[in-house]
Amino acid sequence: MTLITKYLVSDLLKKITVITFGFAILFSFFSFMGELENLTRSDVNLKNIFYSQIFSAPSIIYDILPLATLIGGLWCFATFAANSEFVVFFGSGFSTRHFVKVIFVGGMPLVALTILLSEIVMPIAVNKGGEIKLDNKKNKTIELRSGYWIRDVLVDKGSESPVHERILNIGQITFDGKLSSVLVYEFDNQNKLIRKIRAKDGLYQKNVDSMGDTFFFSWTLKNPLILDVSNPRSIMEIRLENLILSTNISENTFYALTIKPEKMSAKDLRSYVVYLTESNQDANSYSILFWKKAVYPTLIWIMLLIAAPAAFIQTRGGNIGVKIFIGVLFGIFFHLLNGLVSHIGVLNTWTPFLIAFFPPFSALALGLLFLVQSQRFALLK
User: Fold this and answer.
1) Burial class of residue 66 (count of CB atoms within 10 Å of its CB; 0-12, 13-18, 19+)
2) Which of 14, 100, 299, 354 is the most buried (most CB within 10 A)?
3) What residues does each domain of the chain span?
């Protein structure tokens, strides 16, 4: 890496860091002011609101990083152009190829940060934020009018059990796995109803077998009322103190029910898509989110590429501020278009892969076009 490249990358990362930090503080402040309205409630205190804002910071940074990269790149490149430093650089042997290398090298730490936030930091922060909400007694993560329906297909459970699959309806689910208003329908391998189970409270938990070396997950229902209809001639109603039902739903799949899909890691999203597909459920919207999360880190390089023409602005031509403002508007328009294409794709059941890749690669083509247009004479050398 040449001295000029190090100089450019260092200044670029500094300006992007400043913009990202400023945006994060601004959005956190607005969110904090909104949460202060809940202080009138007896179960909310200032300490928990403060910690909640800290754990929401990774999500904020993850969301604003591409736009902050665009604005920071425009700021950096336009400053160098205004000071005629790029004229000196190109006169010293610095070429367009070296400039593209600056974009690639400068974007690598930001891409790594995006992946780290998405796959590790953000899911952990969401879990911690959920625990704080539990302390505040704001633990209802799901409360639908018709409940939340889950299909639990049982495989390799042995021939002794006649149950082939379960359909669960759960009214509310908390971050720690507590369930309420649970309704379970059990079917045999011929899709005939065997049992109907109703419980006011329940728990999704990890268990260990009697040998102590094998783990399995289960639905533990408290004081359930069981209606056994396996024999139409002898329908029985049984009340138990506790009932444990083993399940094939993994911890990652259940985790997907308790948080917004946008906050999940790509690994968890992929696991949930596989579960929905194997259960013959619609997984289109989650597939779109998975591919968008997979493509998301490349937006850093695309935004830097869109900002690149700012390095070749002719200061004597004037209107530098207007040109930079147009670049910022382009970045905002791209984010709005990205979300719009996703919603249209879900409604029209388009291919998730194409929905996720079309907006960023369209922006990439425009960025390359702008760069080639600004440096068409230098590229011919």
Assistant:
1) buried
2) 299
3) 3-137+287-379, 148-258
